[in-house]
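Hi support team,

I submitted a single chain yesterday and got back a structure, but I'm not sure I'm reading the token output correctly. Could someone confirm the output below corresponds to the sequence I sent? I've pasted both exactly as they appear in my results page.

Thanks,
R.
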Amino acid sequence: YRTVKQTFYVGQADLTLVNDSFMKAFNKLDKYFEQFEILIDSANYVEANVLVETIQKVVFALKKVLTQIPNLCIVIEHLIPEKIEVVDKHFTQLEDEGYPLFHLGFRALKESWNRKIEEIKTDLINLKTVGINEKCDSIISEIDDLETKLNKEVEDKTVFEENNKIIYRGVVELEKTFLKICSVLPEIVKIYRVDESQTALLDALKLNVNKLGISKRNLDVYIHSATKQPYCVLRTKLESLKDDYEIAKDGIENFKAYID
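Hi R., thanks for writing in. Yes, this is the structure output for that exact sequence:
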């Protein structure tokens, strides 16, 4: 019992949250010891032995709790709130810079984290530690995940702004090239026999160019949306447009080489 109390007082600075709970437990144990002395003095050894078992169980439980609770108090009172503050500042900064971040649901997450923190604090005050590590890890994981998503929004904005005009211009030029091919194709067909394989290639090319046009219009819708869209969405749409552009470009170059 003395060892348990010594351990508590050595780490008391980190145990402010549960200080009253331990004081109550120590007071209860002190009363048990007083009862024990009375029972021994009255030679009531049977009840004294029962009380000793109770004291041992309480001391053992407190000893076990003290191996876990100091770190848990630090995590729930300092580490997690500090991480929330950091991600909150980052979110606010990006939002102030004009980043659309509604898709991240930050405010609802923050409310959830704060609610879970209070629930965990209640458990710790009641000296309950079972499952607390996992709950803390879950909150930390969600905070880190949000921070990763915020950093990705910054990266996505950079990638989108660096490549949007280049890819868009390439798409427009490719569509012009395809229209030129289509305009001269009837004359070519009159003069030259076009292989069936090339006819099939042309049919596939038309489908790919149509798909390219749809991707371009789809991106336009997101860019000019009344609600500014997240950069992760814009980047995904741009990359989809680029993929369709590369497919159509290869097809046009191959067919152009054939008719040239």
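A quick pointer for reading it: The mean pLDDT is 89. Let us know if anything else looks off.

Best,
Support desk
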